[in-house]
Amino acid sequence: MEDTARLESFKAYDVRGKVPEQLNEEIAVLIGKAYAELVRPSTVVVGHDIRLTSPVLSAALARGLVASGVDVVDIGLVGTEEVYHATFSLALDGGIMVTASHNPREYNGMKFTREQARPISSDTGLFDIEATVRGVLEGGAAPADAAQPGTIERKDVRPAFVDHLLTYIDPASIRPLKVVVNPGNGGAGPVIDMLEPHLPLRFVKIHDHPDGTFPMGVPNPLLPENRAATSKAVLESGADLGIAWDGDFDRCFFFDEKGEFVDGYYLVGLLAQRALKRHPGANIIHDPRLVWNTIELVQEAGGTPVVCKSGHAFIKEKMRQVDAAYGGEMSAHHYFREFSYCDSGMIPWLQVVEAISEAGRPFSEMLAERIARYPVSGEINLTLKDPAAALRAVRDKYAPGALDVNDVDGLSIEYEGWRMNVRSSNTEPVVRLNVEARADEALLKAKTEEVTALLESAR
User: Is the Cβ–Cβ distance between 294 and 305 less than 8 Å?
Assistant: First the structure.
């Protein structure tokens, strides 16, 4: 494969590619050198996920950093949010996580931050790193090695991370709920084990041993086919709720006591209200795909809802701009001010357990009113030949007479009883549709079918 094809691994927010065709030790070393050239750091934290290729790539990345005169704090096998936490809590100059999250097993990748765990994306330097790497692969000179190489310090940061997690709840307020936890053989299991002595919960653990061969498949609970194990365990054990994570556990997904998967949209409003208990009157960030439930709950709790384009780099930037206490996306990314505005897959479930304990009623009952008040279609993904034409057709048909039309992220159109958001993928010819209604399942169904048919006519 040509060298330039390898650089297909550089995406808008991170690096993700097949190993070794698109990402290998040579490229990892060069990425380390290019990152050092861009950021000019003194000390950087490096961690990696459970994939079998991760330790080798992490070591190669560290070699590139050290050759550039950068000191490396190697925190080993961790989750992405542990790199974030180490970066800001140790006041380091940046952090790099070797992970491909929920991608297939033959993939690996990297996520990058600067100081305070600020993300590096295509808009803030990631493509500068790519240009440097590509230049070397095409025959140019690599960044020069430093006269004085850096050092590598291996450090166990998990105890401090667990201590930090426990500050988001009052453990004394938590009842002895039975909780199914399913890390999907990803990295969440050891963190659950360290949290367990601090909590009165009764855990039912499935697929909790980290295993980079992914014996149960790559953990991605957003896929309906990956939810059965958690749902079954909840029902068989009589648990109060179930929780599943993706591989690098920066996202968590919930199941109620009936084994039903909970749409991430409803968690945004619930967690926003938790944040407003801690920070009265604060700003709360939400994405524009589904909004009515979140806006209502935030305003009822005395907060100010602020809409922001979806995507972690956009959310984190907007949170800093308005000093938001919490930010949430329906895709299960949840961001917290005290966590340096970063996303976490651990803080949300701890706060949900606390909320269920305080409510004293089943999880499904806590959610039922909100789901009935604002039913949703679930995200519908359509592969189309001409997504731009499809969006124009939707605008032409539905914008006239609408109460609101905006382009914050894709196309959002709002009527009195229903609204929708239609977005094109940045990387593939896919259009993503979300529809919500005001307490009217029949209207939701009718409008979802109507808009879907219009979009499909562009195939």
Answer: yes
